[in-house]
Specification:
- Keywords: DNA-binding.
- This is AraC-type DNA-binding domain-containing protein.
- By secondary structure, the protein is of the alpha+beta class.
- It has two domains: about 170 residues, Jelly Rolls (Sandwich); about 110 residues, Orthogonal Bundle (Arc Repressor Mutant, subunit A).
- Helices cover about 45% and strands about 20% of the residues.
- It has 13 helices and eleven strands.
- The strands form two sheets. The chain has a six-stranded mixed sheet, covered by helices on one side. A five-stranded antiparallel sheet has the order 3-10-5-8-11.
- A hairpin with a 2-residue loop joins strand 1 and strand 2.
- The relative contact order is 0.11.
- About 5% of the residues have low confidence.
């Protein structure tokens, strides 16, 4: 770690000073210029439409007060530079330690417990026009692709533990942060290139130990099925894929659940909902009925029921807040 960067990150910000003094939250969500803040059911939704063509935004998370539940419309990485962090992500409690990374897709809801003086968390925000999860699945490494897609499609986030990742990942992250905080000649271009390398390293360091590393050659079909969901979620179905790849439908269904941990239908619906959510945020004037049709739903009642169960809010409230 660079001494200059460490000193910068441990130095109290004005918000940290205030929070340390009165132990009250000073809601730094509102200070995150270039982002627009909307509230849906009192849950802030941070959008990237004020990024001003920046590809990357980096900021230190302010310590000493709990960060409330919020969501966002962009890809975000939480990096524990020092200490440890407790978060609740999509209802799941996660503890991150020094050197850990949390990669979250758009639509993820999370809160962060108050950080102590020795806990340094850095947020790395990526412009969706620069990076998408879909861009990584072009790499032809089936087991990694399977783990990556199954986690993103079913949970919207991935955790990278320091003990399971190469040191180069932290080195690149630290270099990105330093280039951002202490810009010099070519820093913008360097950041753009480093961000691509960073995501390649993330992909390479996916921990596959938590999944079944089956030798069964049939498991090779799972990345293909996941990619079909990613690319063709509006129209794809299990019967169609079983016929296309010469599998018995029931066998393929069981194989999918065994390897991914969720049913084909659950993963497909999750993908449709995620894309619908992002569409509503990005296009607040678009009729909900059109969103439903564009993302492969055929039953309006079913869509509303699943959407509210997933995001704990009605689509109309997101639409209203995004257009206000």
């Amino acid at each position: 770690m660079s001494d200059k960067l460490t000193k910068k990150l441990f130095t109290l910000t004005p918000i940290e000073t205030a929070q340390l003094t009165d132990h009250q939250s000073h809601d730094d969500l509102l200070s995150q210029l270039p982002f627009q803040i909307k509230k849906t059911n009192n849950i802030p939704v941070i959008s990237q439409n004020l990024l001003n063509n920046k590809n990357i935004h980096i900021n230190k998370h302010n310590r000493f007060c709990k960060y409330p539940l919020h969501s966002h419309t962009f890809t975000e990485i939480n990096y524990v530079y020092h200490g440890s962090v407790n978060e609740i992500v999509n209802g799941q409690h996660i503890t991150l330690k020094q050197g850990d990374f949390l990669l979250m897709d758009a639509g993820t809801s999370y809160s962060i417990d108050a950080l102590d003086k020795n806990d340094i968390l850095v947020n790395i925000i990526i412009n969706n026009n620069t990076f998408s999860f879909e861009s990584l699945i072009q790499i032809d490494r089936d087991y990694l692709k399977q783990v990556f897609l199954s986690n993103i499609l079913s949970s919207n986030y991935l955790v990278f533990k320091a003990e399971n990742t190469e040191d180069g990942l932290k080195t690149i992250a630290n270099t990105m942060i330093e280039e951002y905080y202490f810009p010099s000649d070519f820093s913008k271009n360097i950041l753009n290139h480093l961000s691509k390398i960073f995501f390649m390293l993330l992909y390479r360091n996916i921990d596959i130990s938590s999944t079944n590393n089956n030798s069964d050659p049939d498991t090779r079909i799972i990345p293909t099925i996941l990619k079909e969901i990613m690319n063709n979620y509006q129209t794809v179905n299990l019967i169609q894929l079983a016929e296309k790849y010469n599998y018995n439908k029931n066998y393929l269904s069981n194989l999918f659940k065994k390897n991914v941990g969720r049913t084909f239908s659950e993963v497909l619906i999750k993908k449709k909902l995620s894309e619908s959510y992002k569409d509503i945020i990005a296009h607040p004037n678009k009729p909900i009925q059109q969103v439903i049709l564009d993302h492969g739903f055929t039953n309006k009642t079913f869509f509303y029921k699943k959407f509210e169960a997933e995001y704990h809010i009605k689509p109309s409230k997101i639409k209203k807040s995004s257009s206000s």
